[in-house]
Amino acid sequence: MIIKVTPNKEKARSMLALAESKEAFANTIDIKLYPTNAAENYYDVIRELASAVLLLDGNKAMGEQAHKEIIDELSGYKEFSEDEIALADDLRIKRNNSSYEGKPVDKIYVENKKQKWIALIQKLKQMIKKNI
C-alpha cells in the first residue's frame, strides 16, 4: 500500500548515501563466483533509491507488497521507460526467488543485466540529487 507522507529531503539524502555505499560494495562482487549475491545487492540499491524518489514526492510503500509497489510507482514518472520498470521488477522476482525459495541467480543473467542495472541506478541517483 502506498501512503502519503511528508516529503523528507534529509532522509532521502541519507538513503542516497546508504545506497551509494551498497552500490560500491556490489561493484566489488565477483559475479562469476557470487552472481546471486551481486543480483541481491544491486536490487537493494535500486529499491533503496526508488524509495528515496518516492519519499521526495511524499509517498511511501508499506506492507507485504511494498517492494513491488515501489517499482510499480516508478511507472508514474516520465523519466522511466517500461523496459526499465520491467528490468527492476524482473530483478525483484529473481531476488525474491533467491531469498525466499533458495534459487540461485545464474551468472549469465547477471552478466547480461549488470550494465542496465547500473544505468538505472545512475538515473535514480540523478533524480534524487536534482530534488534534494
Give a structural overview.
With 132 residues, this protein is mostly helical. It is 71% helix and 5% strand. The chain has five helices and two strands; from the N terminus they run βααβααα. The chain has helices at 9-26, 35-56, 66-74, 82-101, 107-131; strands spanning 2-4, 59-61. Strands 1-2 form a two-stranded antiparallel sheet. Helix 2 packs parallel to helix 5 (107-131).
Mind describing the biggest β-sheet? 2 strands, antiparallel
Beta-strand proportion: under 5%
Number of strands: 2
Structural class of the secondary structure composition?
Answer: mainly alpha
Radius of gyration using CA atoms only? 14 Å
SSE pattern, N- to C-terminal: EHHEHHH
Shape: globular
Fraction of residues in helices?
over 70%
Oligomerization state of this entry? single chain
Brief sketch in words of this structure:
This protein has 132 residues and is mainly α.
List keywords for this structure.
single chain; 132 residues; mainly alpha; two-stranded antiparallel sheet
Chart the SSEs and their pairings.
Blueprint: E1 2-4, H1 9-26, H2 35-56, E2 59-61, H3 66-74, H4 82-101, H5 107-131
Antiparallel strand pairs: 1-2
Helix pairs in contact: 1-2, 1-5, 2-3, 2-4, 2-5, 3-4
